[in-house]
Amino acid sequence: MTEWAPDTEKLQGYDDEEWSRVEREYCGRLLAYIARRVRDVQAREDVLQETLLGAVRGIAGFDSMYTFEQYLFGICHNRTIDQLRRSRIQVLEIEDDGEGMPGIDAIAADDETPSRIVRGADLAWRARKLLGQLLKQWVQETWAQKEFVRLMVIEALISRSWRNKDTWERFELRDETAVAGIKFRALKRLREMAREQDPGGELLPALAVSTESGETSLDFDVGDTWRQQRVSCPARHWWARRIRGELEAGPLQFLDFHLSEMECRWCAANFEDLSRKHEVELQPLVERVHASTLQYLRSRTLP
What we know:
mainly alpha; 68% helix; 303 residues; globular; 0% strand
């Protein structure tokens, strides 16, 4: 099953019909994401409207490193934090969860020259994009091989920094050396894929530190990339199959682990949205959201 994704060229052309479908497709899952942290119903709707309006205003600068859904949820994440700040709620845990989209200002040091900043930012962007591609490819290969325990082990180690001891006990492996072996083989495969996709070796030095220690010389790490680019998040149709009880043991085990133990907020939002019984309840909200974005769309398209 292919997931619907909007035509970004139409969105950047401020196409009303395409934006209207975006609102119909994403309002439910965005609202579920917001509701996990914002208690006030009116405030939730305000955050939702700010998210969609922010997406329209920022679409010209859409970063192809991310999917549109990642772009949208990144804005939603930031608008949710803004709302919590306005409500004077402590948000330290939320700010540190690695779900936001990093900016160039987080890459360059204050004492760097402008030309060095540009070169460093470009290298960091390409290295981060390549790392995300490698991780996604590894996840897809592992899923295709039905090695779901291996996938859960690596996600726990990379995304949540689990200790080897905790990991082998959780998955009932032989001992810590079994965890180390899984990690070694995963890193070996990542290096092989990196050489295939970066034959010139320009980005490999930047990624070498990432795969070994989780840190890089470009101020990002594997864990951040794993979370920000959602490399292990199952597609929406998997969650629909989970709700219908159609999954085999392996995928079911991973989905439940990813949702409950990795506490993925994006997937929780998708799961809750798909579990909603009465879609008609969202229609008035979708219409209000569209009314708030329509004025901006027309201001950019009308002479």
